[in-house]
Amino acid sequence: MRIAVFxxxxxxxxxxxxxxxxxxxxxxxxxxxTDALAGRQGLVPLAGSVHDAAFVRQVAADADVLALAxxxxxxxxxxxxxxxxxxxxxxxxxxxxxxGVVGGAGSLHVTEGGPLLLxxxxxxxxxxxxxxxxxxxxxxxxxxxxxxxxxxxxxAAFFGAHAPGSRxxxxxxxxxxxxxxxxxxxxxxxxxxxxxxxEIERPRHRRRRFTVGY
Length: 214
Hints:
Elements: E1 2-6, H1 11-22, E2 26-31, E3 43-47, H2 53-60, E4 65-68, E5 73-74, E6 79-80, H3 81-95, E7 98-102, H4 128-142, E8 150-154, E9 172-174, H5 189-201, E10 208-213
Helix pairs in contact: 1-5, 2-3, 3-4
């Protein structure tokens, strides 16, 4: 497939690019600065923004999958991913491609019927704005017309460059509740990418959010 990865130079985006290339897919790596993406076989670097509707339509017209590995809010500019979701969804539907989103863990429930992770005691205050922005993006996805084929994959609570983990090739799948083991909810970057590409290649969660963890 031809997979367009927005945010290809970020933590999650880099892992998606690597996994997709390893599986033999053609990848379009999209970022504001693409120097780090140059020179890799099967990877086409392309500079642009997911918040540029005309650019997204252009990319979607020649892709099988749009993968968004971008923040819920774009830095100090305050541009919300949720505000761009309707245009991104329309571009995906017009281009006949699937939309996959690297989500946040903050919008997951800690336990069945329990509070959201972002509302739980001890959730870092500095993370709440981004977690809340990604929750708004998820809400916007759920409001898209039925013609838009999307999925939103929330990682475990501990996910990112601060907790990269080691590749195991294994993960467990959940729905709206954090996947945890022995009180810990975590997933490594490579294993998250495996789960994301597995969903692309063998769709099981159409127009749904799901989560993965060890």
